[in-house]
Design brief:
Helix content: 25-40%
Structural class: alpha+beta
Shape: globular
Largest sheet: 7 strands, antiparallel
Distance between the termini: 50 Å
Strand content: 15-25%
Number of helices: 14
Radius of gyration: 29 Å
């Protein structure tokens, strides 16, 4: 038991080491995918290119720099570059970087832009650059029960031309900087991580062309009778490791198996952060016009529309692809970009092309910014009221707040009117008022309107204004993460000729009936992940977490810890931690339990159900990774009966 337990603790160390030891892939294509985009951009009137050999820094000899056909430099945290540009005319300009992240695995490189010695905007203080990942193998590995498990990710080095954006990736277009005619001094600082930097481009900002304008400048014949089908769960690469394949038990999804769990869809609630993108590479036989259809499902947010930005070879080719809507649906559906009757005709070059699908909350950005502003206004007004009334309000005391804050009614009405404008926009986007976000928004406005009718009663009604779960401030605060979250699941991507739109998938009734009977019979068999009991040569671990967590632990342990040590470990789901007491009484307790509440170790220890961890020889050296005091909840007398899985701390900021 003692040896088994300490060996299990080292599993955690093994999983941490995996992040640093994951392999890296350098695509053989190098800059082939993006050089044409660079050539087109350089022809823009008024655009300026600052090459890396003018930065006054040593040229990089990093292996990845060989994939770039221009000079490049390697920037680390604390490095900076300065350059001077001459602007021909006043106006908004965008900055783009040829870059490749090389060192970091999780944290994205960050930088800052200063113009003429100062920050031109708040957004320029923190600029995030993309890093990319890909699967380490083509096929999903199988766990010990025959179900598909997640594939480990590796960094892929990829040069890209990145137009700097806001850190939240919530704005429709890249950041624009107002530059006047004449010379300007620019400084770029590397504040986190490191990256390779090539040329920097300063270009006059222009709106993306409309679809009709795009067609006028891209005259080509339609492709004919062409259709390729891409499984969404197998992207070429992505910019966020949190986007992961999921299992869907619908017969409308492929691949499908009645008995085994297949990772047959991509995204869902794991793909909701604005700026998170997945990319698919595909080949077309000839130059011409093609259409794109996505088989998607958004059933996690009722009456709520989510959006995706579509890029072709790293560029939004026309404005309508900046915000492609996916309304709430209960079933999987094919969404042809532009609609099945008039699909968008998109020009593709013969050979390899890259389709990018990025989550975006830009249609909700105006409402998000308005809520953030209104919350500040509410808090400011609330503090003014509290300065007069104090923290403890006597319900029997009457106040004449309007005597001290004469414009309080006007301020409340202004807040309500501001919110009403954005509520109308939300209602229009979501095609009705049935979404939880719209209803909550309306409740917040109603609270403020009621208070505006009689401002003198606000001190006794602060629970409607800024305090409590039903206050206007709390309701608006709850809406913010909902508007920022954009979940969507994908099953397939179709690249096809405009006249060859894929048909909607319909499952025959008898197929559905037969499969339902099979699954019903299968349901009488025990859940493999919830089954208890391990072999004599296995360490048994109960985990009070979802199946995906248990599945990942089991896969990591089987692939690394068991392979290296020969020690077998069986993880099982523990749906209720109170079963630990019952298991101890029945004599079927596990060797280790994970994910239990802080109070459980004490209750088990006083029943002599736990082992004193101080009896292990390497206990003192092992606990040095924890903060002082983090073990106090698990100490009785001189014995320690548990160790924390996570360490949380509180931060006060103002």
């Amino acid at each position: 038991m003692t040896k088994k337990f300490m060996n299990l603790l080292r599993i955690i160390g093994s999983t941490i080491i995996l992040l640093a030891a994951l392999p890296v892939s350098i695509p053989a294509s190098g800059m082939d995918d993006t050089t044409s985009a660079f050539a087109r951009a350089d022809t823009n009137v008024g655009s300026i290119e600052i090459r890396a050999d003018s930065f006054g820094l040593p040229q990089s000899n990093h292996p990845v720099s060989q994939l770039y056909d221009k000079p490049s430099v390697f920037l680390q945290q604390g490095d900076s570059i300065h350059f001077t540009v001459s602007i021909e005319q006043d106006g908004p300009y965008t900055l783009s970087f040829d870059m490749a992240a090389t060192e970091s695995f999780i944290n994205a490189p960050e930088g800052q832009i200063l113009i003429d010695g100062g920050f031109p905007s708040i957004e320029s203080r923190r600029i995030l650059f993309p890093i990319y990942y890909q699967n380490t193998q083509d096929a999903f590995p199988l766990d010990r029960y025959g179900n598909e498990a997640l594939i480990r990710q590796e960094r892929v080095y990829r040069w890209t031309r990145f137009a700097i954006r806001d850190a939240n990736f919530s704005q429709k277009y890249p950041l624009q900087f107002q530059l006047s005619q004449g010379e300007h001094t620019l400084e770029f600082r590397m504040i986190k991580e490191a990256m390779l930097l090539g040329s920097i481009y300063i270009e006059p900002f222009q709106d993306d062309p409309t679809y009709l304008e795009y067609l006028e400048t891209n005259q080509a014949a339609d492709s004919s009778e062409f259709l390729i089908e891409i499984e969404a769960e197998s992207p070429s690469f992505k910019n966020n490791t949190s986007i992961r394949p999921m299992n869907d038990r619908s017969l409308e999804v492929s691949p499908y198996d009645t008995y085994q769990l297949l990772l047959n869809t991509m995204g869902g609630e794991s793909w909701d952060a604005s700026g998170s993108a997945i990319y698919y590479e595909f080949d077309v036989p000839e130059d011409g016009m093609y259409s794109i259809t996505l088989r998607a499902l958004q059933n996690t947010r009722n009456n709520f529309t989510v959006f995706r930005k579509i890029t072709i070879n790293d560029a939004v080719v026309f404005a309508e692809l900046n915000e492609v809507a996916f309304p709430n649906q209960s079933k999987w559906k094919n969404y042809t970009l532009g609609g099945e009757q008039t699909p968008y005709r998109i020009f593709l070059n013969q050979g390899k092309n890259t389709l990018g699908i990025e989550a975006t909350n830009s249609p909700y950005q105006a409402a998000i910014e308005k809520i953030q502003k209104v919350l500040i206004d509410i808090n400011t007004l609330s503090l003014e009221i509290k300065k007069l009334t104090g923290n403890q309000v006597d319900p029997y005391k009457e106040w004449e707040i309007s005597e001290y804050i004469p414009d309080i009614k006007e301020r409340l009405m202004a807040i309500a009117e501001d919110l009403q404008v954005d509520l109308d926009v939300l209602t229009e986007i979501n095609q009705g008022s049935g979404s939880q976000e719209v209803l909550t928004y309306q409740m917040a406005i109603d609270n403020i309107m009621i208070l505006a009718e009689d401002p003198d009663k606000i001190p006794s009604r602060m629970n409607r204004f800024s305090e409590g779960s039903g206050s206007a401030a709390q309701l608006l605060g709850n809406i913010l993460p909902s508007l920022q979250s954009q979940p969507l699941a994908l099953d397939k991507i179709y690249i096809h000729s405009p006249n060859n739109i894929p048909a909607q998938i319909k499952v025959p009734f008898w197929t559905s009936l037969v499969d339902g009977v099979k699954r019903f019979i299968r349901s009488f068999q025990p859940n493999q992940y919830a089954s208890i009991g391990a072999a004599e040569d296995e360490i048994e671990v109960w985990v009070n977490r979802p199946r995906q967590y248990v599945d990942l632990l089991q896969t990591l342990t089987d692939e690394t810890f068991t392979r290296d040590t020969g020690i077998k470990v069986k993880f099982s789901i523990m749906p209720n931690e109170s079963k630990l007491v019952l298991a101890n009484a029945a004599g079927i307790e596990p060797d280790v339990a994970l994910g239990v509440s802080t109070n459980v170790p004490y209750e088990l220890a006083i029943r002599n159900a736990l082992m004193d961890l101080r009896s292990f020889e390497d206990f003192d050296s092992f606990i040095r990774i924890y903060s002082p005091g983090s073990l106090l909840s698990y100490i009785i007398n001189d014995s320690v009966y548990a160790i924390p899985e996570t360490q949380d701390f509180w931060v006060t900021f103002y």
